Inverse folding.
């Protein structure tokens, strides 16, 4: 509308969005719209928030999947290495690096990586939405804290398992070492690892707010950020509701996955 | 849960290791608290004659796009970046401690309500919730503190409640009750003191994460407002000059990362010493 809008225009818009009714009425109106699956329209573009979210969601999904593809192998392998080499230089280096990965803020590492890889070395485009070339840097930045978390969870779980007496039994029986690692260690460690991967997948979808903004990736995260900067409340509300819903659904799916992964949990459920 | 029956030498070496990061943080925080007394450039003084000068003797971290001294801004910024994290941790501890204590001891409906609230808050992605809270309230350091604490108290409440549940059944509580102590007296004088070390350890573990949340909110423009420097807001304000003046982004980020790293090392050592499990929430 701008500062020089005519009083009549302001009045008509106030009526349209129902700004004259009380706060509670407005809230009830919003809930009614929500119940019908309508998130309202952006104050700025007047586009439906839901259709914009539907448009941007696949991009965020793509970024999250790419980050996960980097995270899972690195996190699990380094985590195993750190558990097997605990107390030795390799283990200590991995532990320190994973702690550093959790300490460096994403918005800073994103900028530094952008300076090095796109502005100085010119290997990747600094920002924008598109194919693999655009995806590499934001996915990498997003995966650093996730790798660190996964390493730490894997390390704790695996080092617990390594102390279990059944490993001695297996060794005494003459099971080949590789088979012990895969059938006895990995199989038992998989539950907490899957949990963290699941939880992290939920948080990529949301934590992408900063990464997407910096790299100009046209997803839900950047959409949220634009809404916040412009105080575009329908957009902010819509994004937070969708983001939270995704987070909760991913957590639920992770919980359900337990049952098929670990027979012991099924057993406990039947006890009750 | 805390175990103190370990070998003496191991505890000692753990304490020694933890001293280093803690000392580093204390030193940094003291310097930034004392920064008005130190012979520094005024962090808010705009000097149009020296815009974006690279690091040199006069300006060890260079100057930013308005000619302000980055070194003194980083030092001043530490006051808010560390201070807000510590304040939020204190608030979270106090709320989580008292709520967890009461929920664990009295149980019943109060316990159900509190634990549902905790589950409710934890079902949100924490950063998004903090952002949502900061958007509703006017931006500033108190809003950031509040946003972090609203999310942060839950883990303290959960921890303390669990600990109280185990303490409640111990014989010293029965003994106190037999002597005629009131519930309040048992709670405050017999159970609460035993939970304090645990919550202090939890605070140490949480501080690094709280600091990064504050920095992210500041970076998004939801924290302390300009011209007040914080590490997060300095990085976002200077993003446009990363090619011509990279030092304006480099140094606040380094300060942030190093401090968070120190907090996290300290937290990690605390976790090891008290055998905390690596878990989220």
């Amino acid at each position: 509308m701008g500062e020089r809008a005519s009083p009549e225009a302001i009045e008509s818009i106030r009526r349209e969005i129902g700004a004259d009714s009380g706060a509670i009425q407005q809230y009830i109106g919003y809930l009614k719209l929500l119940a019908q699956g309508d998130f309202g329209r952006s104050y700025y573009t007047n586009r439906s928030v839901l259709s914009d979210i539907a448009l941007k969601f696949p991009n965020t999904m793509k970024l999250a999947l790419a980050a996960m593809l980097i995270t899972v192998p690195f996190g699990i392998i380094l985590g195993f290495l750190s558990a097997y080499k605990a107390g030795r230089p390799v283990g200590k280096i991995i532990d320190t690096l994973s702690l550093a990965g959790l300490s460096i803020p994403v918005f800073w590492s994103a900028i530094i990586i952008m300076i090095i890889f796109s502005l100085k070395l010119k290997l990747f485009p600094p920002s924008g939405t598109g194919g693999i070339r655009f995806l590499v840097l934001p996915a990498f930045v997003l995966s650093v804290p996730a790798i660190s978390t996964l390493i730490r969870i894997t390390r704790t779980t695996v080092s617990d398992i390594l102390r279990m007496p059944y490993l001695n039994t297996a060794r005494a029986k003459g099971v080949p070492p590789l088979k012990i690692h895969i059938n006895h260690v990995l199989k038992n460690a998989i539950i907490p690892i899957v949990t963290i991967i699941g939880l992290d997948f939920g948080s990529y979808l949301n934590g992408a707010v900063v990464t997407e903004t910096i790299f100009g990736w046209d997803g839900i995260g950047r959409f949220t950020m634009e809404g916040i900067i412009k105080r575009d409340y329908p957009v902010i509300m819509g994004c937070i509701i969708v983001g939270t819903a995704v987070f909760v659904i991913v957590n639920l799916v992770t919980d359900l996955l337990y049952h098929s992964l670990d027979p012991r949990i099924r057993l406990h459920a039947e006890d009750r | 849960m805390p175990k103190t029956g370990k070998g003496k030498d191991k505890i000692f070496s753990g304490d020694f290791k933890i001293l280093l990061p803690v000392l580093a943080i204390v030193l940094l925080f003291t310097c930034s608290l004392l920064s008005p007394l130190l012979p520094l450039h005024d962090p808010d003084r705009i000097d149009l004659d020296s815009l974006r000068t690279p690091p040199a003797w006069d300006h060890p971290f260079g100057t930013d796009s308005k000619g302000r001294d980055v070194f003194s801004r980083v030092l001043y910024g530490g006051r808010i970046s560390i201070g807000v994290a510590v304040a939020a941790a204190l608030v979270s501890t106090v709320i989580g401690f008292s709520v967890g204590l009461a929920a664990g001891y009295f149980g019943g409906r109060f316990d159900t309500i509190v634990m549902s609230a905790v589950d409710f808050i934890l079902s949100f992605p924490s950063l998004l919730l903090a952002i949502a809270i900061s958007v509703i309230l006017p931006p500033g350091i108190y809003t950031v503190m509040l946003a972090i604490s609203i999310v942060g108290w839950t883990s303290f409440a959960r921890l303390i409640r669990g600990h109280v549940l185990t303490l409640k059944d111990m014989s010293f509580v029965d003994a106190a009750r037999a002597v005629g102590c009131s519930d309040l007296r048992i709670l405050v004088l017999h159970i609460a003191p035993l939970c304090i070390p645990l919550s202090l350890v939890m605070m140490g573990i949480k501080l690094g994460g709280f600091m990064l949340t504050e920095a992210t909110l500041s970076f998004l423009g939801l924290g302390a407002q300009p011209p007040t420097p914080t590490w997060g807001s300095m990085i976002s304000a200077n993003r446009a000059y990363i090619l011509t003046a990279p030092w304006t982004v480099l140094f606040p980020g380094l300060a942030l990362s190093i401090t968070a790293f120190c907090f996290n090392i300290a937290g990690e050592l605390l976790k090891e010493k008290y055998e905390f499990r690596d878990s989220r929430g």
User: Anything to note?
Assistant: DSSP finds eleven helices and no strands in chain A. The domain at 50-271 of chain A is CATH 1.10.3720.10 (MetI-like fold).
